UniProtKB/TrEMBL annotation:
The keyword Electron transport does not apply. GO terms for biological process: inositol metabolic process; phosphatidylinositol phosphate biosynthetic process; signal transduction. Belongs to the inositol monophosphatase superfamily. Its cofactor is Mg(2+). PROSITE patterns: IMP_1, IMP_2. The keyword Protein transport does not apply. GO terms for molecular function: inositol monophosphate 1-phosphatase activity; metal ion binding. This is Myo-inositol-1(Or 4)-monophosphatase. It holds the Pfam family Inositol_P. InterPro entries: Inositol_monoP_metal-BS, Inositol_monophosphatase-like, Inositol_monophosphatase_CS. Keywords: Hydrolase, Magnesium, Metal-binding. Mg(2+) binds at E71, D89, I91, D92, D204.
Amino acid sequence: MPGADLDLRAIVGAVSDAADHALALWAGGETRVRQWEKVPGHPVCDADLEVDGLLRASLGAIDPGAGWLSEETADTVHRLGVSRVWVVDPIDGTRDYLRGRRGWAVSVALVEDGAVRLGILAAPARNEYWIAQAGHGATRNGRTLRAGSRTLLTGARVPAEQLPRNDNDLVMVEKPNSIALRMAMVAADEADLVATVRWGNEWDIAAAAIICQEAGAMVTDALGDPLLFNRPRPTAFGLLCAAPGIHAAATERLAPRAREILGG
C-alpha cells in the first residue's frame, strides 16, 4: 500500500484528470495532435508531453519527496536517492492513440524500495480504470479481478496479431497496442499469456505488473526471474506475464530463446 501519508483518492483523481485530457485531445479517434518520431519506429505526440507535464505537477504536489521516472522526461540520478518513485508512461500505446484506436492507456505506478506498491491504468477510450495496491487486490471499474486457472500452455490465449510458427498451439485474441493493457487482460482472465524477448522499460510495465500480481498472475522477466524497479538502468530483458498454472511451462519455452538472444 502506498505510504500512509498519501491520499489514494487524490492520486486516482490526478491520473483520471490527466487521462481525461488525453481523451479530449484524442477527440473520438480524430486526433489532430502534432506527432513525430523520437527515434525511427518510436512515435511521440503533443499529448504524450502534455499528459506527462500534468502528471508530474499533480503527483509531485501529492508526494513532493518522491522521485520521477517517465518515458517523456529526461532521467536523472535523483530518483536513485529516494525511497519512493513515480514510474509513468503518459500514453502507453501511442500508435493506437494516433491511429484512432482505443488500445492506449495512461500508466502510473508508485515504486517503493524497488517494489511496486500502487498501479493505475486509465484507459478512458475504453471506459476502463484499473487500480491495484500491494496486498489489497486489483480492480477494473471497481470489480475485483482474478487471473485464469489454465494449467495447459497449449491453447493459452495470447494478445497477438500473429504468432511464431513454433507457437502455433497458442490462441490469438485482441491485441491493444499498449503492453500494459495486454498484461491487464491476463489479470482480467481475458488472456492467459503475454511474453516478449526484447529489452523493455520499467514505465511500460510497472503499473500493469502489480495489477496482474494482485489478481494472482505471475510476472517475471523472460528468464523467469523477478522484476525489480527503479534500477540505475530502468530496463528489463523481456517479460513473461501469465496465469499462474502455465507460468512454469511458458518459462521453459521462452527462456532458451531469451538466452540465445543474450548470447548464452
